[in-house]
Amino acid sequence: MKVTEHIKEAKETLFSFEILPPLKGKSIQSIYDGIDPLMEFKPKFVNVTYHREEFIYKERENGLLEKIAIRKRPGTVGICAAIMNKYQVDAVPHLICGGFSREETENALIDLQFLGIDNVLALRGDSIKTESSFRPHPDGHAFAENLIHQISDMNKGNYMMDDVQLEPTDFCIGAAGYPEKHFEAMNLAFDLQNLKRKVDAGAEYIVTQMFFDNKKFFSFVEECRKIGIAVPIIPGLKPIKNLTHISFLPKFFHIDYPIELSSELLKCKDNKSVEQVGIEWGIQQSKELKAAGVPCIHYYTMSNSSSVKKIAKQVF
């Protein structure tokens, strides 16, 4: 079932969350251990992130370096199939531009259609550690907008193989939005125009980057509506869990903490106290968003569901 159909049928704010694929060597049970505690809140869909391949360099006998691709986490397609089979809940795989050719993207979408997966979240993706900035695959997409165009074309029956007639796909396409703007955008107005192009290309709903100030989310939605973005906008939340998060999250995700939150975090001396602040702030944020009638609240669990469970118990 499509995310937009779940939203249309819902009589109140939905609950959803996102997980990370496990590190290489861990079993599927590690995925289930992160999902099981949250099933009591009846999520309509679960997002599965995608992590790009990284590379190592090995010295050959002739002294030259050989670039070798390594995969640290199992594939998203298989994880989505396992989740749908075990929980009878829709899985939303992330598709990214980085590291994929258009042909590889098409093949992945064909696999997803075969498995009965109706939803995809189309993202550009981040640069890998060895890149100073994002570099698209030579035969891939530089922007999420282009990836969305390819998925939309397949939904119309237009494949890369012009000489082969295939059935149209029927994916519900999600896109990412940034209440505090994407860090590469010149300003928020420019970023909103980029978002509108993604919607015009075929994105049917938006999931936001994490944020900690609801005022910024409400302002973001208002500005989206002003420029003609009418699709559902789902807020994404992440509970702060440890001392490292205090500095890491703003730096890595280019977001700000409200003064009230930062003041409480500065009082924390250990991970336990940080986690408690994160839970209390998450409850406050979630209740306000739910009262405002958002279609769904999406939680970034990073495959650790303990804080999200405590928040959800007070909200859903």
CATH topology (level 3) name: TIM Barrel
Strand order of the largest sheet: 1-2-5-6-7-8-9-10
Helix content: 40-55%
CATH architecture type: Alpha-Beta Barrel
pLDDT average, as an integer? 90
Instruction: Give the SSE order as H and E letters.
Output: HEHEEEHEHEHEHEHEHHHEH
Sequence stretches where pLDDT stays below 50 over 5 or more residues = none
CATH class: Alpha Beta
Radius of gyration: 20 Å
Topology:
Layout: H1 3-9, E1 14-19, H2 29-35, E2 45-48, E3 54-59, E4 65-70, H3 76-87, E5 90-96, H4 102-114, E6 119-123, H5 144-155, E7 172-177, H6 188-201, E8 205-210, H7 214-226, E9 233-237, H8 243-253, H9 259-266, H10 271-291, E10 296-300, H11 306-315
Parallel strand pairs: 1-2, 1-10, 2-5, 5-6, 6-7, 7-8, 8-9, 9-10
Antiparallel strand pairs: 3-4
Helix pairs in contact: 4-5, 5-6, 10-11
